[in-house]
Write a structure and sequence with these properties.
Layout (H helix, E strand, L loop, with lengths): L2 H16 L9 H17 L8 H11 L16 H8 L4 H13 L2 H5 L9 H12 L3 H14 L17 H5 L6 H7 L11 H25 L4
Helix pairs in contact: 1-3, 2-3, 2-7, 3-5, 3-7, 5-7, 7-11, 8-10, 8-11
Protein name: HD domain-containing protein
Length: 224
């Protein structure tokens, strides 16, 4: 087995071990989907012809949700990915790229203006893959799964979505409804895609969410 294949297998084992207790919105199946999407987008974007790019994309996609602030059980978990890459003997230049991709993935960092326009091409495909999994039919299912895991209300017309969000507001655990998450984040993702391949795929998923919400509001009000 080639070294890169062995690293991928070990990364898969780490994902299964560390994300075992997560709810189904951020579980191992989410990671496998993001990995598959990222590799597919990378091929469409021509990264398969760049040495080491596909390995960087695959490892970053696999490891991107380990140590997610929403699921941190212990501060030491933030170091798991770094320690893993060091233990696997990943070359410094690759390791730096992988960690930079993971660090810059979050919507909260984009809200804070922390996402740099000079990022490597691998970053765009991994972030777009993660965001594609947050929209469309899968995105809807994940959104309500996460809301249910936090006992959030489905919808309350009296609670308005926070449309001008800062990073601090977004991370704050104030009462919000699951449906408002579509307006606060999910419907914004189509216009935040970094790659042409990601933008193209986001169109259909975005439209599906808009149609779902239209139907949801009609049914909520007894109009459908």
């Amino acid at each position: 087995m080639a070294k890169s294949e062995e690293r991928v297998k070990n990364a898969e084992k780490l994902v299964e071990r560390t994300m075992k207790g997560n709810d189904a919105s951020h579980d191992v199946s989410h990671v496998w989907r993001v990995r598959d999407l990222a590799l597919s987008l990378a091929r469409e974007e021509g990264l398969s012809s760049i040495p080491h790019s596909m390995e960087i994309v695959e490892l970053a996609a696999l490891l991107h949700d380990i140590g997610d602030y929403k699921y941190l059980r212990d501060p030491s978990e933030e170091k798991i990915v770094e320690n893993f890459l060091e233990g696997e003997g990943v070359e410094e230049s690759k390791k730096t790229k992988i960690l930079m991709i993971i660090k810059g993935m979050g919507f909260k960092d984009e809200l804070a203006g922390l996402v740099n326009g000079e990022l490597c091409p691998e970053f765009g495909v991994v972030q777009d893959a993660d965001r594609l999994d947050a929209i469309g039919a899968i995105g809807i299912a994940r959104c309500f799964t996460f809301g249910g895991s936090r006992n959030a209300l489905l919808h309350d017309p009296a609670i308005q979505p926070r449309l001008e969000l800062s990073k601090e507001h977004y991370m704050k655990k104030e009462e919000q409804t699951t449906v408002n998450h579509f307006h606060e984040k999910l419907l914004k993702l189509k216009n935040l895609m970094k790659t042409k391949a990601g933008q193209k795929r986001a169109e259909k998923r975005h439209k599906f969410m808009e149609e779902f919400l239209e139907e949801f509001y009609q049914e909520w009000d007894g109009r459908a």
